[in-house]
Design goal:
Blueprint: E1 4-6, H1 9-22, E2 42-53, E3 58-63, E4 68-73, E5 83-93, E6 96-106, E7 109-117
Parallel strand pairs: 1-3
Antiparallel strand pairs: 2-5, 3-4, 5-6, 6-7
């Protein structure tokens, strides 16, 4: 049976709050010609990195925001049980979540990353 790793809801909440605070004070419903939009609306914030183990050359994750369960297939041969990290970033536009990005690293090298939604 596959082991699906999950990210901590509190870490996800903290990352979302950080994204919202970055755009605090900007009223998108009442933009004027003198509104400061120089920071842009797209922001990606790191939520959490978790320890995982390679199983059958893949890492299986339970993703937040309704993206469901997914297995990321490692493109190189790595033995079962090899320690890895899976890092979750949340993509936002003006502080509103639009997608996520997951990156898997083995021995400090990113071996695969995938986005879900808009990043």
């Amino acid at each position: 049976m596959k082991n699906y790793y999950s990210f901590d809801e509190q870490a996800i909440s903290h990352a979302l709050n950080s994204a919202k605070q970055t755009h605090a004070g900007l009223d998108l419903t009442n933009l004027k010609s003198d509104s400061d939009l120089s920071r842009g609306g797209d922001l990606q914030v790191q939520a959490q990195c978790i320890s995982v183990k390679v199983e059958d050359n893949k890492i299986c994750l339970n993703l937040p925001f309704g993206f469901g369960k997914h297995c990321l297939h490692i493109p190189i041969s790595i033995p079962n049980g090899t320690a890895a990290n899976a890092c979750l970033s949340i993509c936002t536009t003006w502080g509103i979540p639009t997608g996520i990005k997951v990156a898997v690293t083995v021995a400090g090298v990113t071996v695969i990353s995938q986005t879900f939604g808009k990043c």
